[in-house]
Amino acid sequence: MANIGNEATNEATQHNPAFEENEEPVHHHAPTPKGRYLALLSLTALGIVYGDIGTSPLYAMRESFHGPHGIPVTRTNLMGVLCLIFWSLILVVTVKYLVFILRADNRGEGGILALTALATPIRRFSQSERRWLVVLGVFGAALLYGDGIITPAISVLSAVEGLQIATPLFQPFVIPITIVILVGLFLIQRHGTGLVGRFFGPITLLWFIVLGVLGVVHIIKYPAVLGAINPMYGINFFREDGLEGFLILGTVFLVVTGGEALYADMGHFGKLPIRIAWFTVALPALLLNYMGQASLLIRNPEYAENPFYRMAPSWALYPLVVLATMATVIASQALISGAFSITMQAAQLGFLPRITIRHTSRTEMGQIYIPAVNWLLMISCILVVIGFRTSSNLAAAYGIAVTSTMAITTVIFYVVARERWGWSYLKAGSLAGFFMIIDLAFLGANAVKIPAGGWFTLVVAVFLGLVMTTWKRGQYLVALRASSDQRLTEVTELVQNKPPIRVPGTAIFLNARRNGAPEALLANIHRNGVLHEKVLLVTVENLSVPHVPLAERLTLAVVGNGIYTLTVHYGFMDERNVPEALQGIDLPELQFDPLQTTYFINRTKVVPTDLPGMALWREKMFALMYRNATNAADFFRLPPAQVIEIGTRVEV
Question: Which domains does the chain have, with CATH numbers?
Answer without folding.
Answer: 31-448 (1.20.1740.10), 482-651 (no CATH)
